Amino acid sequence: MIPEPLHIGFDAKRVLFNQTGLGNYSRTLIGNMAEFLPKHRYFLYSPPLNFEPETFNRVGIPFQQSANMVWRTPKGFFSRMFGGSLWRSMFLGNAINKDKLHIYHGLSNELPLNAGKIKARKVVTIHDLIFMRYPQWYPAFDRWMYAQKWKHSCSKADLVIAISQQTKQDLMEFLNVPETKIEVVYQSCNPAFYNDYNDRLFLNHGLFMPQQYKLPPQVPLEYVLYVGAITERKNLLTLVKAMHLLQPKLSVPLVVVGKGKDYQYKVWQYIQQNRLEKQVIFIPDLPVSDLKAVYRCARLLVYPSLFEGFGLPVLEGLFSRTPVITSTGSCFAEAGGNGTLYVNPLNAEEMAAAIETVLTDGAQQMNMIIQGWEHAQQFKAETTTARLMQVYKQLL
Q1: What stretch(es) of the chain map to CATH 3.40.50.2000?
Q2: Please, which pLDDT band fits residue 390 given cuts at 50, 70 and 90?
Q3: Prediction pTM value
């Protein structure tokens, strides 16, 4: 017999302390569970945090208002040392046992060091093993640390969730995790990208309805969009080179939503050397409401990353009814489906040709929008949440 209601615990470190990939995954998964499966009780284990409403509203999901949500943070001076990291690593198992959980789910590659003492069934999500596949992108100490954490988590977990078939294959290849211990459960994205009245009209009647969106002041009326961190792996420089190749025939600005450090300086050097300052617009960060508008109004999203665990911007673009170009290989076909255009991410000429095709061929644009939208439906919150609960119940 599976007990009802279930008591399910989550590592909530990334919910409020990470604005990008792991944070998006945690917020979306927990928010969807609370909304679509409200009869269960959810325990969120987090470092010390400020419970003011603004803290939660900043990331777009007001978890603290959910009646079925319980927050757990470290108590006492010793447990709160180092921002709660000591508590999460060494003593979290005690708190989990005290709450009598049925399932504890580490959402960001980790389980506590004392996971062996946890009485609940243990699940860990592994997002990627890029540090093993491409070690040149990571410092030696980081690679060693990640390897220890990932190995520990996979060995102590009763079940390992991979966010893509690509990650599942990497778990088997690099960490020798048995296939029978891995389940692929795709992630969704923030419902803001698809909970739209016009989307419902399209879904029911097959018609797009025009709608006006208020764009941030620095965004032009027509543009190609890039969303993601500005790092070597994300490969923004090749996209900038491709946009440069299109000039002066196609002089469409590139809007870059994301931030970086050393690699961003490298990109900026190329922009300055080729006098592209007015053609590339950098926006470090946007709230979800503005980001939704920026996706919706873009003529094209290009995501030239070299390797990912899933590639969330691809999915956000498809849900936003925006044509998407992304890279061949890795997991991108899983996220992008047949409606997405795939190019060699290191070939600026090929990328430029694909961009030109999409921007100048209206029929291709519409086919990509419709096929992309249809492919994205399998990643809606109701579907991914039901799949996750199915996995939980199989484990119990």
Answers
A1: 7-188+380-395, 191-378
A2: very high
A3: 0.89
